[in-house]
Each structure stands twice: as structure tokens, then as C-alpha cells.
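Is this the right way to post C-alpha cells for a design question? Let me know if I should format differently. Anyway, here goes:
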């Protein structure tokens, strides 16, 4: 998952810089995408599996929901766009 988070971080930074015309990745700060996953026990012994994206900035870690509205929209569109591309997720997974 760390490798996947690093890849998402790089791709988010690249896309952000394309949209806003920044050539220097430092323009969006020292943000890093972390991926958390697991299972929660639901009703009647069932399990709910989840994957959660977190934004690490310096010593602090935030959920995507705690970031600016612009970043939330940008991130949501990035994930939505990524999910529509056949075979794209193979580039994020290392088996």
C-alpha cells in the first residue's frame, strides 16, 4: 500500500501542476497521499471493508474530507477519472 500511495502522490502532484501551470512540485507543498485499509465488523457478524485516502502534510495526517473544497473536488475527479481507464489500476498494484 505504501507503493500505491507513493504513486498516487506523484500522479496527483503531476496533474495538479498541469492544471495550475506549476513546474515545481513544491508549489503544492509537502503533501503525501497515504492509503489506509481494513475491515470493520458490521451487524450480524458481517464485515465492511474499506479503503481510506489520507493526506500527510508535515507531521500531521488528515482525511481528504478535512482538506479544502478545491482539493476534495480535484482528488475526487482524479480518482473517478482513474477508475474509468481500463487497466490503469494495474500500474498501482505491485504483486
Amino acid at each position: 500500500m505504501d507503493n500505491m500511495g507513493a504513486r498516487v502522490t506523484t500522479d496527483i502532484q503531476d496533474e495538479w501542476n498541469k492544471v495550475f501551470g506549476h513546474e515545481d512540485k513544491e508549489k503544492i507543498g509537502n503533501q503525501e497521499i497515504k492509503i489506509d485499509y481494513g475491515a470493520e465488523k458490521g451487524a450480524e457478524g458481517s464485515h465492511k471493508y474499506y479503503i481510506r485516502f489520507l493526506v500527510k502534510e508535515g507531521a500531521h495526517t488528515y482525511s481528504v474530507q478535512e482538506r479544502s473544497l478545491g482539493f476534495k473536488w480535484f482528488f475526487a475527479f482524479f480518482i473517478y477519472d482513474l477508475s474509468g481507464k481500463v487497466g490503469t489500476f494495474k500500474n498501482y498494484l505491485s504483486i
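Format looks fine. Someone answered above. Worth noting: The longest strand covers residues 31-41. The chain has a mean pLDDT of 76.
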